Amino acid sequence: MKHLLKLEDWSTEEIINTLNLADQLKYEQKHGIEHKLLKGKTLGMIFEKSSTRTRVSFEVGMTQLGGYPLFLSSNDLQIGRGEPVEDTARVLSRFLDAIMIRTFEQSEVEALAEYGSIPIINGLTDYCHPCQVLADLMTIREFKGKLEGLKMCFIGDGNNMMNSLIVGALSTGMSFSAACPKGYMPPEHILEFGKKYGANGKFEIVTDPMEAAKGADVVYTDVWASMGQEEEKKLREKAFAGYQVNSELMTVTNDECMVLHCLPAHRGEEITAEVFEAHANEIFEEAENRLHAQKAVLVECMTDGKSRD
Ligand code: CP
Ligand code: NVA
Hints:
By secondary structure, this protein is an alpha/beta fold. It has helices at residues 12-30, 53-64, 85-92, 106-115, 130-144, 160-171, 188-197, 209-213, 233-239, 273-278, 280-302, and strands at residues 42-47, 68-73, 98-102, 120-122, 151-155, 175-179, 203-206, 218-221, 258-261. The strands form two sheets. The chain has a five-stranded parallel β-sheet with strand order 7-6-5-8-9. The protein has a four-stranded parallel β-sheet with strand order 2-1-3-4, with helices on both faces. α9 links the parallel β8 and β9 (258-261). The longest helix has 23 residues, at 280-302.
């Protein structure tokens, strides 16, 4: 059974195949070619955190594929009143064909996969955001025509976005640099992944944003305080002052450097309005590509990659 629990579970070949399928589905959608590859199938979508892009792109994507998306807020599910995830997994497996879940703990996503008997797709946890990174890689390929040999630079928090970006970039032959304040680095095992797959100077985490951005082909940033960290907002504003994607930072990147942001963006914090607007075409193509990349993930997981055989 194929799940998408975290990006490091997928091989480079699986990632590239998914990007290729996403490109094809985007082409078909733009040209009015029907692709009801999941006709009659139901996707349960459990949300324990807010969402605009993830919810709407999964709902629309499932509909375009001929299937049915079922929105399940944790406020309304018994899981919100303490029903164990192990039981929820076994019950929902009898009604649904797959589950997409956005939650806090990565262990909850892993438990759904362990106890359920249907594909599980991670729609963001505190640990990672694999669907977003597949859309990011798709967008970079679209604008640059390749991934291999490019340098991605992340400015900010060693959070869920950065964890998945490290895996996505290094798995597809990009090099990766980041600037994070002390105390906000990614977890140790992600740093180990970076050292293993980013040997020969292809992986670097520093504290100086200008140093990290030097020669970058893609600059990426994300909010300073993620969902669930609202109480740390003031503390984080202090810690991340200076960790901003602004026009000064963009002077040290390569020419034609892209800027990406998973959104929602906080102008004046992690990115200036000026840089955001100068790269809005890339950022909103990236947002659109959530739809196409996730449709590819749904097809890969819900048909075991056999949809077009
Ligand atoms: N980037 C992203 O996942 O957006 P949402 O939180 O709106 O789903
Ligand atoms: N790091 C952010 C990403 C939002 C898509 C968060 O977890 O809130």
